[in-house]
Amino acid sequence: MTDKITGKIFLIPSALGAEGNNSIPERSREGLMTIEYFIVENERAARRFLRSLGYTKSFEEVILNKLERDEDFEESAELLAYLKSGRCAGVISEAGCPGIADPGASVVKWAHRLGIDVIPVVGPSSIFLALMASGLNGQQFVFHGYLPIESATRKLKLKQLEEESFLKNQTQIFMETPYRNDGLVKDMLSVCRSATKLCIASNITLPTENIRMYSIGEWKKNIPDLKKKPAIFLLLSCER
Q1: CA–CA separation, 175 and 226 (whole Å)
Q2: Angle of helix 151-168 versus helix 181-191 axis, rounded to 10
Q3: Across 94-204, where does the E strand assignment appear?
Q4: Are 64 and 13 in contact (CB under 8 A)?
């Protein structure tokens, strides 16, 4: 049996926006300060996030390995040697939690295979914060990530999700890039049933946070403007 690798990998949630650092607990901030090896989705965003939390080490002495997609992760002799020395590494996504709708799962899978301890750190996840605040079913839910871009295909997918939601009493959760939010909302209002519940949670944890849950019929009377606003959408169909 090989000697246990004593270094740990910390999964570090980052703020959901430039003004969202208050959502990072103090204990999470403290754990960052001694780490000198990071796997990051975006190097510039990671530097900015670390500095905003009071990280003082020089980035000339800190390793930042970029991981934009899980499929790009490759085993690193440098990382393994670092962890074998007893030092800890961190994984930081661009916004939110590593491994949840962001890269990081590949690193965790590798760590488990080698018996390396993985430490999930408390911090914001827009998906779970939106579900908590929606009032929809938190016992049965599915996150679908991004829906199809093309409107006709997206409408078919929305109808499918609505039907599954009704049959399983299941909250359907999905997202879109901010500049396509309004197109997604338009498609939902055109194909979903009036009684279906829709929660739209935008700018979560930021000063401009807005979380509202209405029926599709009610949303049609007050169509939101979501241009350039990061948003999570939650759908629950209670009747046909």
Answers
A1: 12
A2: 60
A3: 118-120, 141-146, 171-176, 197-202
A4: no
C-alpha span between 142 and 169 (Å, rounded): 11
**What pTM did the predictor assign?**
0.90
What's the one-letter identity of residue 202? S
At the topology level, CATH places domain 126-236 in: 3.30.950
CB 126 within 8 A of CB 13: no
For the domain made up of 9-120, give the CATH fold.
Cobalt-precorrin-4 Transmethylase; domain 1 (3.40.1010)
- Residue located via tokens 């169909």: 237
The pLDDT, as a whole number, for residue 1 is: 42
Residues of the chain with CATH 3.40.1010.10: 9-120
Q: Structure tokens of 79?
A: 């990382």
d(CA 134, CA 227): 21
Q: Which residues contact 81 (CB under 8 A, 6 or more apart)?
A: none
Residue 29 contacts residue 214 (beta carbons within 8 Å)? no
Kindly report, as residue ranges, where domains of CATH 3.30.950.10 are found in the chain: 126-236
Torsion of CA 26, 27, 32, 33, to 10 degrees: 80
Q: How many CB atoms lie within 10 A of CB 79?
A: 21
State the Cα–Cα distance between residues 192 and 69, nearest whole angstrom.
Answer: 33
pLDDT in tens, 84-140: 999 999 999 988 999 999 999 999 999 999 999 999 999 999 999 999 999 999 999
